[in-house]
């Protein structure tokens, strides 16, 4: 039996529609209004919504359009409205049978069947279109995932596709699902790397200000300062695209505010007093960036994401060590004990991370080569710290700390593009 819900545009208007529907063998659930159409359709789940009104109104088309979006069902309208514009609106709003000046008890059953047949046909077309759209979207995801694998693993397109297909078979998932997971993993790893760079740059800028104030390669320090600022801007731009505002927006905003305060202090006149102010704001940016990276690591479902964070943090620790060493070599004696303790903590954290990275199963031959080179630069930095009072020692600190950025940039990128990280 066909279930019917009657839609009355004007509540309370008496008609013979319900009686004729019952005679036609339909089961009438009741009557509703335009305002309640969607709610009552969801409640009763009729096969057909039937309308009998002399003239169509905007309220009818608005109601049927909303129904088409929320809970599609067959709709039949008996009307005296002969306007072509109304017919066009009827088709566009999801009305399947638009009967003009043709109402009759004998025709009701046939019109109900017509509406149901057209609705079924439209449903098949919608499903076919949705399936085609899903396949096209899946194809885009797979192509994008293949590109990531080809770039990260230096593999051919067929090999990248084979890796995705194998993962899909093992996980009993669709190829598009595996591709989407890989794309998300790549985005998470890049966000971790980019957020980690904010930490390093906060310390590097202070180091560069100290080197300029001490007269150590001031032109090089100025160029690196400009490059650091540009790198900060680029990272904030990428992070704004990668991160969910609802999930991480407050943490990213705190980093941006920290950078704005630091940027303002970088423009302050006078070298010596400015360096101290810069350092205060740099510490605030560092704290905000640490909170962001910790949240990214905690929220990520990507296996091995922590190694990206550890490797990226080494850049910051190297710059922090160089900064504190220069502060010890140029600052007042009373502050020396506190700074020396900070320097020792920094060195201990750096060396513990070196051991952890060396033992990580994600560290392949290229990673071990980066670690070996970084170890040499780290020893040069430690040696230069003892000669920080001399120009040569300060120059060695400047150069070895920059080398460490290069080494750990490469290593962090290796981890970010690791197949173990991307494929989980």
Structure description:
The protein is elongated, with a radius of gyration of 34 Å. 75% of the residues lie in helices and 6% in strands. Strand 3 (48-53), helix 3 and strand 4 form a beta-alpha-beta unit. It is an alpha/beta fold and 424 residues long. The protein contains 15 helices and five strands. It has a five-stranded parallel β-sheet with strand order 2-1-3-4-5, with helices on both faces.
Q: What is the structure about, briefly put?
A:
The protein has helices spanning 17-23, 37-44, 58-70, 84-92, 105-153, 157-171, 175-213, 218-242, 245-266, 272-299, 305-330, 336-359, 365-385, 391-416, 419-423, and strands at 3-7, 27-32, 48-53, 74-79, 97-100. By secondary structure, the chain is α/β, with parallel strands linked by helices.
Give short descriptive properties of this protein:
single chain; 2 domains; about 75% helix; elongated; Rossmann fold; about 5% strand; alpha/beta; about 425 residues; 15 helices
How many separate structural domains?
Answer: 2
Q: What's the N-to-C terminus distance?
A: 53 Å
Q: Number of DSSP helices?
A: 15
Low-confidence stretches: none
Order of helices and strands: EHEHEHEHEHHHHHHHHHHH
Average predicted confidence as pLDDT = 92
- By DSSP, the count of extended strands is 5
Strand content: 5-15%
User: For the largest beta sheet, what order do the strands appear in spatially?
Assistant: 2-1-3-4-5
Helix fraction by DSSP (H/I, runs of at least 4): over 70%
Main beta sheet, described? Answer: 5 strands, parallel
Determine Rg (CA atoms, Å).
Answer: 34 Å
Helix and strand content put the structural class at alpha/beta
The general outline is elongated
């Amino acid at each position: 039996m066909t279930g019917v819900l009657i839609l009355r545009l004007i509540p309370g208007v008496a008609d013979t529609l319900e009686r004729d529907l019952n005679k036609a063998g339909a089961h009438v659930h009741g009557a509703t209004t335009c305002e309640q159409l969607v709610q009552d359709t969801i409640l009763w789940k009729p096969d057909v919504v039937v309308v009998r009104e002399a003239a169509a109104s905007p309220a009818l088309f608005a109601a049927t359009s909303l129904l088409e979006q929320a809970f599609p069902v067959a709709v039949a309208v008996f009307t005296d409205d002969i306007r072509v514009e109304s017919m066009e609106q009827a088709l566009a709003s999801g009305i399947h049978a638009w009967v003009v000046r043709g109402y009759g008890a004998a025709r009701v059953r046939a019109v109900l069947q017509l509406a149901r047949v057209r609705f079924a046909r439209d449903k098949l077309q919608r499903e076919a279109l949705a399936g085609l759209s899903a396949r096209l979207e899946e194809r885009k995801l797979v192509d994008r995932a293949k590109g990531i694998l080809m770039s990260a693993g230096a593999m051919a397109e067929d090999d990248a596709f084979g890796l995705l297909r194998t993962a899909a078979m093992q996980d009993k998932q669709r190829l598009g699902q595996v591709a989407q997971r890989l794309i998300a993993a790549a985005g998470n790893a890049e966000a971790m790397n980019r957020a980690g760079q904010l930490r390093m740059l906060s310390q590097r800028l202070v180091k560069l200000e100290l080197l300029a104030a001490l007269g150590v390669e001031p032109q090089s320090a100025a160029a690196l300062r400009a490059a650091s600022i540009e790198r900060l801007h680029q990272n904030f731009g990428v992070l704004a695209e990668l991160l969910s505002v609802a999930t991480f927006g407050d943490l990213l905003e705190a980093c941006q505010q920290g950078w704005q305060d630091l940027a303002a202090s970088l423009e302050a006149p006078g070298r010596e007093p400015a360096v101290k102010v810069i350092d205060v704001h740099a510490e605030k940016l560092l704290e905000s960036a640490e909170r962001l990276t910790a949240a990214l690591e905690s929220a990520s479902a990507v296996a091995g994401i922590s190694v990206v964070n550890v490797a990226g943090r080494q850049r910051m620790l190297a710059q922090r060590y160089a900064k504190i060493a220069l502060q010890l070599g140029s600052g007042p004696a009373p502050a020396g004990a506190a700074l020396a303790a900070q320097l020792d903590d920094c060195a201990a954290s750096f060396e513990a991370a070196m051991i952890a990275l060396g033992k990580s199963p994600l560290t392949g031959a290229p990673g071990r080569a980066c670690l070996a080179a970084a170890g040499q630069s780290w020893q040069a930095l430690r040696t230069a710290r003892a000669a920080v009072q001399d120009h040569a020692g300060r120059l060695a600190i400047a150069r070895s700390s920059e080398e460490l950025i290069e080494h750990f940039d490469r290593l962090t990128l290796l981890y970010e593009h690791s197949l173990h990280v991307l494929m989980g």
